[in-house]
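Quick one: C-alpha cells for this chain, please?
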Amino acid sequence: MHFLDDLIAIWLATIALLVAILLAPNNPARVVLGLPFVLFFPGNVLIAALYPRRSDLDGVERVALSLGLSLAVVPLIGLVLNYTPWGIRLTPILVSLALFIAVCSAAAVKQRMRHSAAERFAGDIRPLLQAARSLPWVSLALAAGVIGVLLFAGFRIGVLGGSRLGETFTEFYVLGLGGKAEGYPRRLMVGETSQVIVGVINHEGHTAHYRVEVQAGSDRLASHGSFALADGEKREDRVDIILRRPAKQVKVEFVLFMEESVAPYRRLHLWVDALAP
C-alpha cells in the first residue's frame, strides 16, 4: 500500500490542520499546514486522479501542475461559495476544500488500483524521507535565519518597505462582532437589531473621503455620512442591521462610495433570513 503514501500524507496533514483550527485557532501550525492545504493539496490530488500511471508525468511536472491547478481550483471554489448563503468564510472554505480533496483522493485511489504495480504512479514517500534525513539541516536553519534577519532589517530601514508597489486601492470589509470573518447574522426576526463591523482602510496614496450605506433591496438600513481617512488610516464602525419585512435569503449589501461619486466604489453582501415575529 506504499503507492498511497502521498495521499495518506495529504489526508493526515488535512486532519491535523482541521484539529489545529478547531482547538487552537492562533497556533502557528495553522499557517504551516494552511499554506500547502490551499496552494498544493487540491491540485496534487486532482493530478493524482487524472494521471494515475507512472509514465503519464514525471515528478517535476506533477509538482508544477499541482501548484498551478491549486491556484485555479481554490478561487473557483471561492467564487461558487460567494453565491451561496454560506459565503466566503473560514468554515465553508475549509469544508469545501476538504471535500474536494476527499473526492479527488478517492478517485485517485480507484484509478491507481486499476493499474498494475509496474504501471501506476508510486506514491511511496520513503525515498523522500531518507533523502530528507541526509540534508544538512543545521546549515539550512542558519541560512534561513540569516535571510530572515536581512529581510526584516530591509523592511525596517525602508530598503524594501519604504516604497509602495502596485496600484492604489481601498480595503473594504465586513466582520462579525468578534472581529473575524465569521459570526455573521444569518437569521433575524423582523425588527430585531443585529450588528456587524464595517471597516475601511485607505491605500489611495492621499487623503480620501468616503461614505458607507447599508441596503436590503430597496430599504436603506443605515448610512454613514462622509468621513475622511488619511493614507494608511483605518476606520471601523459597528453597523446595525434591522430588517423590516419577512423574507428568505435577503441580500444585505454594504456599499462604499468615494468622494462625491454616485457610483459605488466597493460592494459586499450577506444573505440573511428575515423571520416573521
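Helices lie at 5-23, 29-39, 41-50, 59-82, 90-113, 126-133, 137-157.
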